[in-house]
From TrEMBL:
The keyword Kinase applies. This is Sensor protein kinase WalK. GO terms for cellular component: plasma membrane. Residues 41-260 form the Histidine kinase domain. Its main location: membrane. The chain holds residues 331 to 595 of 595 of the full protein. Coiled coil: none annotated.
Amino acid sequence: YDAHLTPYYGKGWKRRGIIVVLHNITNIRRLEQIRSDFIANVSHELKTPVTSVKGFTETLLSNEVNDEKTRNYFLQIIYDESDRIDRLIHDLLQLSRIEKHDIPLNIKTVDVIQLIHSTAATLQNEIEKKGLTLQLPNLDEKEMFVELDVDRFSQVILNLIANAINYSKENGNIKVGVVFSKDEFVLAVTDDGIGIPKNTISRVFERFYRVDKARSRHSGGTGLGLSIVKHLVELHKGRIDVESVEGEGSTFTVIIPRKHHDVSS
Ligand code: ADP
């Protein structure tokens, strides 16, 4: 009988036992950590270009730069850095919409070989600038149809080829291969570029993870491309994998079902 509990439970209350409520907060802590890391990353990614835009604008406003060439050089930096902020915000919004499942897919039956060609054509300038050779699946091949969302899947193709370009050496080779089985479509983007170190390969699909931050930033990367690609592939009920040898090159392989509704869940 615990006298001090009488006010709460009335006279004669007897302790029969104790109810212990244990919450496993490991998972909550982990999610909090991920969220706070994410906010720190976003803030850092935004701070760098904003600082640069502010600094160069201040210098221009102070009227201390008189020659036109230098003024134009500074203006170009301001433009490029604003562009980076724009891209980052665009990627972040897209990632957040995908993660909230706020992206309804517009599934159509599409000739994927045609789609690969039209998507790759938008990167022609970058390919030429680096003197790269891009090998695409043969257009004369029989039309190969897959059910997918044209806009979202062309973004998958675009991001993978853009990465192959960014992480290639001058005059390198990029190959986009396709394999069709009855049920599945396989897309493989291979480059003979810088490759990915073995100990970091499992992390490349994480948000903001970059093997070499300076190189990624220099080529305009936001560090979000592959995590967006992975989400988009999963929306198509598919999977993505990477194989790479540092210094020799990488292959990113995407596998999606040819009929979108065949797979439930
Ligand atoms: P980024 O904007 O930095 O390219 P991504 O999410 O697309 O971001 O890629 C994450 C990281 O994975 C890159 O910073 C790079 O280190 C590595 N990576 C991606 N694609 C390739 C590739 N084809 N070859 C070598 N490394 C790559």
